[in-house]
Q: What sequence folds into this?
């Protein structure tokens, strides 16, 4: 047993941290929140190309770096600290993984290189609305190569040229009959409506499809297992991103508690303040351990993927919400202002628990897996 | 990062399993709170002698003192394998996990020669004589006195929360050797014969109905000079070593174990309602995370790194898991919880002690805040003040 990152992984983390601190700190994330795209193309190009993040987990044969979820979770952790990354999550964590799990080798060879280089942006919509996706949550219809239906709150859909959409084909029920389709976002019958979201630093859009021309990837009606794995991996990736953000919240809180004097003492010397900070630290250190382990499971133990995703997601959500709340509280009135960054994290924490399904939904799945639910 | 055994670890695990296989007890010898302790101790002493004869009595101790010098990772594997055959926890732990390592680090050759082997083979059960009625969280304010008398020491005072003192051959004692020094500076670490004249042990009955703890009254107890460990005023540093080893000894604990006991109950009942199922799954997520955090801390220690802030929150996290598991176990019982005894009654009644013993929840959080987050210390009214000049509970000096 060895619960430590390798030297190369530590170096990789340091290089991403440097890049984010220089090019995409939270102040920049705040500025970009007011823009349509939410990212700066020149910075994206560097992140995707020079750092090679866009193709981090894309096989080398398709122009990527061929790394595992371990490296992906490092990148997300570091981006999460500053609420940075823009289309990274949708392209690298959702779309690229869905292609890897569902598309044929030929389709992967055709579609992945543009994602790996960062030239094309993509996203994935499985359930018709954000939830812990089950086959029943896919009602969007595929008929004769045309899709009709609606996908709500799709991550970064307004930035994607390639939309990957799960749809139900005729004749199948439950998991049978769900296929993955690729759509050109600019095609007729595709309407992408940006949403003004709770989380100011992550872009969302509704996607409405009205007989939109689409092309099936992989075999007919058999995409569900691969999509379920993609979403479990995404939950693990999201957990890593949350750990980074929660760490930053705690650092900001502690720095403030050391510098802010009241009653002639730094407020961080008061037990009541210390205990709040340690409550956040406790959840964070526990959730961080689960997040790291879950990334290893995703890379090496496919059989345990779903339980690990539930553990990582549920603990990261709780830890991040706690850290984000305490960050506001420990900053006092200042933490309640628009000007302070605390609310950006607080908004992100709440939105994160909805995007891939509420922790309670993940726990319900876990309870079934552990034999705790009434049969 | 790799959660599988390395080839070396796998080989070590196989060696441990091969040794343990013929020794697996018929049923788990689990300490269940104070009933029939004498019989349990006799059984555990026999087991300890079996281990001793095979060279496995104290595998964590260095080789020159009869141990195997196991690494942190190997100790973990040893603990996991003991747990697998139901051998967890021992009444002899005070000597094996606390006093032994302290003597190895701070004792002289004569003390090591006299005490280490009988401790390792289970002939000496050691009890801890640290806490006092007036010195709990603020242990360094202890008032038991050790005064020079002839070529030894004369000890007077009262100790409390001493585990298994009524079964112990020996105790390790903190007593004040110099009341004119600030409170941390004037403390000595002594080894006391529990059968010596003037030692009186009064068993306490805890809220579980069992007896784990004792009060120990010391009246003019003679302690020979050779039973002082370290310098007369150096006891506080030794006590810190002892308490650190106490914390390391719980390293083989698995937080999934209390979860699994409740899960077993629920499965036998055909599953839980959605509310209880959610809380049980939530317990699982945090218990799993806790085992992982403990593993992360062990990796850091094994690599010679600072254990990190995570190590400082483990104790409270363990207590939280035990409290939650006990609560959910009682809930799973339904109306059977109303009976005087049941599958989770002992856990339920024991659970409140978790956040009190071994450092209260508040003290542990204070340490985590200061050492883990670098938050400033609270002003300490006793800092630098001679012990004899400190105000004490009830206005007593």
A:
């Amino acid at each position: 047993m060895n619960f430590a990152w390798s030297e190369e992984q530590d170096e990789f983390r340091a290089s991403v941290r440097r890049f984010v601190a220089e090019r995409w700190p939270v102040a920049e994330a705040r500025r970009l929140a007011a823009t349509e795209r939410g990212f700066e193309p020149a910075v994206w190009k560097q992140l995707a190309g020079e750092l090679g993040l866009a193709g981090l987990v894309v096989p080398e044969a398709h122009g990527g770096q061929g790394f595992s979820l371990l490296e992906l979770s490092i990148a997300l952790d570091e981006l999460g600290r500053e609420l940075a990354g823009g289309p990274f999550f949708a392209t690298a964590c959702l779309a690229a993984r869905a292609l890897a799990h569902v598309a044929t080798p030929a389709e992967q060879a055709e579609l992945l290189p543009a994602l790996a280089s960062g030239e094309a942006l993509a996203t994935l919509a499985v359930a018709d609305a954000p939830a812990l996706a089950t086959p029943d949550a896919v009602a969007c219809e595929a008929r004769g190569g045309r899709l009709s239906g609606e996908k709500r709150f799709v991550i970064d859909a307004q930035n994607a040229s390639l939309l990957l959409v799960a749809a139900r084909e005729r004749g199948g029920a439950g998991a049978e009959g769900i296929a993955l389709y690729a759509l050109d976002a600019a095609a007729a019958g595709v309407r992408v409506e940006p949403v003004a979201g709770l989380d100011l630093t992550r872009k969302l859009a509704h996607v409405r499809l009205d007989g939109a021309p689409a092309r099936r990837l992989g075999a007919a009606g058999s995409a569900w297992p691969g999509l379920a794995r993609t979403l479990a991996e995404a939950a693990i990736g999201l957990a890593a991103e949350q750990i980074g953000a929660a760490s930053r919240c705690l650092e900001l809180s502690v720095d403030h508690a050391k510098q802010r004097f009241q009653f002639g003492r730094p407020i961080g010397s008061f037990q009541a303040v210390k205990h709040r900070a340690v409550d956040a630290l406790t959840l964070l250190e526990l959730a961080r351990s689960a997040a790291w382990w879950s990334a290893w499971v995703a890379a090496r133990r496919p059989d345990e993927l779903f339980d690990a995703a539930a553990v990582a997601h549920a603990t990261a959500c709780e830890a991040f919400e706690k850290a984000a709340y305490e960050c506001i509280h420990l900053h006092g009135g200042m933490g309640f202002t628009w000007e302070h960054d605390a609310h950006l994290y607080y908004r992100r924490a709440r939105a994160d628990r909805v995007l891939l399904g509420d922790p309670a939904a993940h726990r319900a799945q876990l309870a079934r897996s552990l034999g705790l639910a009434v049969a | 990062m790799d959660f599988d055994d390395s080839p070396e670890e796998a080989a070590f695990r196989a060696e441990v399993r091969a040794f343990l296989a013929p020794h697996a007890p018929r049923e788990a010898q689990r300490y269940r709170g104070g009933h029939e302790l004498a019989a349990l101790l006799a059984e555990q002493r026999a087991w300890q002698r079996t281990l001793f004869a095979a060279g496995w009595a104290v595998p964590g101790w260095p080789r020159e003192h009869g141990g195997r010098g196991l690494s942190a990772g190997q100790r973990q594997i040893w603990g996991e394998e003991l747990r697998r055959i139901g051998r967890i926890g021992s009444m002899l732990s005070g000597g094996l996990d606390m006093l032994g390592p302290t003597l190895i680090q701070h004792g002289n050759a004569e003390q090591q020669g006299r005490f280490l082997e009988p401790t390792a083979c289970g002939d000496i059960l050691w009890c801890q004589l640290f806490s006092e009625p007036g010195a709990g969280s603020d242990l360094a304010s202890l008032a038991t006195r050790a005064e020079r008398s002839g070529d030894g020491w004369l000890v007077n005072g009262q100790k409390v929360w001493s585990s298994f003192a009524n079964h112990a051959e020996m105790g390790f004692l903190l007593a004040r050797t110099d009341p004119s020094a600030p409170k941390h500076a004037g403390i000595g670490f002594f080894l006391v014969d529990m059968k010596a004249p003037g030692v009186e042990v009064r068993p306490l009955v805890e809220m579980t109905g069992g007896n784990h703890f004792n009060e120990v009254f010391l009246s003019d107890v003679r302690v020979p000079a050779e039973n002082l460990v370290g310098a007369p005023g150096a006891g506080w540093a030794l006590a810190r070593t002892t308490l650190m080893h106490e914390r390391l000894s719980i390293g083989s604990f698995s937080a999934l174990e209390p979860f699994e006991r409740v899960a077993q109950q629920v499965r036998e009942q055909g599953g839980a309602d959605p509310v209880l199922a959610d809380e049980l799954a939530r317990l699982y997520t945090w218990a799993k995370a806790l085992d992982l955090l403990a593993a992360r801390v062990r990796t850091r220690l094994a690599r010679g790194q600072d254990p990190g802030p995570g190590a400082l929150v483990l104790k409270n996290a363990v207590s939280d898991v035990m409290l939650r598991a006990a609560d959910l176990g009682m809930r799973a019982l339904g109306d059977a919880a109303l009976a005087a005894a049941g599958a989770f009654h002992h856990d339920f009644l024991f659970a409140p002690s978790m956040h009190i013993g071994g450092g209260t929840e508040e003290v542990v959080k204070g340490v985590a805040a200061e050492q883990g987050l670098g938050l400033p210390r609270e002003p300490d009214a006793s800092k630098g003040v001679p012990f004899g000049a400190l105000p004490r509970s009830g206005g007593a000096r």
